[in-house]
Design a protein that fits this description.
The complex is a heterodimer.
Chain A (H helix, E strand, L loop, with lengths): L10 H11 L7 E2 H8 L3 H13 L3 E8 L2 E8 L1 H24 L1
Antiparallel strand pairs in A: 1-3, 2-3
Chain B lengths: L4 H47 L6 H19 L3 H27 L5 H23 L2 H20 L4 H21 L2
The chains are: A alpha+beta, B mainly alpha.
């Protein structure tokens, strides 16, 4: 594999995907918690989530808890598959270079 | 763009670190409501043990209510992982009940205070083990704190031990729940 998945292979999006992949399938993560895990600004996180949503990798759900707006993000099946492929590709690079040396 | 072996390895390390952190926070979110529930139960039950020592049914009744409450909390928060491991939680609970039954049959406690101190120590052990196995540093701190406070009260505050456990043990669990929820 020469070119990793360009959508996932970006530091913030990579962390978003990894944080969501660690959860049980279908489980959602609140935006504020995701922000704490990824360690970035709200605007930056929002922009990267939109990119992942447009790629079909994450699903975003917005609602209200009382009067407080809440945004929750979950990995889609497609996103989970894409991320697992991406991780496999990374492992393949390591294995290939190990075999060469 | 071609990735080198070092870049690939570094990316995998980042992924692993983020997954661990996410998993840890998920566990905290799952555990916090149980701490609130059992903190309140400890406050009431140990408090009753101090102020109304003849109310012998308080603990069994509240323990059963707490177990049902914990089950309902788990049910409400159920996830794919919780479903998959549900039978293991049930199996663990049953194993612990059998272990305690066997332990008390072999080494029966001689005083109520021993029983009152044994269960918090057991819970502290579980918190420690959960923390060690999941990398949840806050669970380790909670386990150590609960164990140390229980031992301190048992050996140094014998006449007020039930009250100590109501305030420090029960209150500590509730504070621990807030601590986990805001992690």
């Amino acid at each position: 594999m020469d070119q990793p998945n360009a959508i996932i292979h970006q530091p913030v999006r990579l962390k978003i995907m990894a944080a969501l992949r660690a959860l049980p399938q279908g489980e959602q993560l609140e935006f504020v918690r995701l922000k704490a895990i990824v360690g970035t600004t709200e605007g930056n996180l929002g922009a990267h989530i939109t990119t992942l949503e447009e790629a079909g990798y994450v699903a975003v759900e917005k609602d209200f808890v009382g009067k407080r707006p809440r945004t929750r993000v979950a990995l889609t099946k497609e996103g989970r598959r894409a991320f697992e492929d991406y991780v496999s590709d990374l492992r393949a690079i390591i294995d290939a270079t190990r075999a060469d040396s | 763009m071609t990735l080198s072996r070092d870049e690939a390895a570094s990316t995998l390390r980042d992924i692993s670190k983020t997954e661990r952190r996410s998993s840890e926070l998920f566990g905290y979110r799952f555990g916090a409501p149980h701490l609130f529930l059992w903190g309140a139960i400890w406050m009431v039950a140990y408090g009753a043990g101090y102020y109304r020592p003849h109310w012998t049914l308080v603990w069994p009744v509240l323990a059963i209510a707490g177990s049902i409450g914990s089950f309902l909390i788990g049910w409400r928060m159920k996830t794919g992982r919780a479903n998959a491991f549900g039978w293991r939680f049930g199996g663990t609970f049953l194993s612990v009940v059998l272990f305690i039954g066997a332990l008390f049959a072999i080494m029966p406690p001689h005083t109520d205070a021993q029983v009152a101190a044994f269960f918090p120590i057991l819970v502290a052990l579980f918190y420690l083990l959960i923390g060690v196995w999941t990398g949840g540093s806050r669970m380790i701190v909670l386990g150590l704190a609960m164990g140390a406070l229980t031992l301190y009260g048992f050996f140094n505050l014998a006449p007020y031990f039930a009250l100590w456990m109501a305030v420090v043990g029960g209150g500590g669990l509730i504070l621990g729940g807030f601590w986990l929820r805001h992690a």
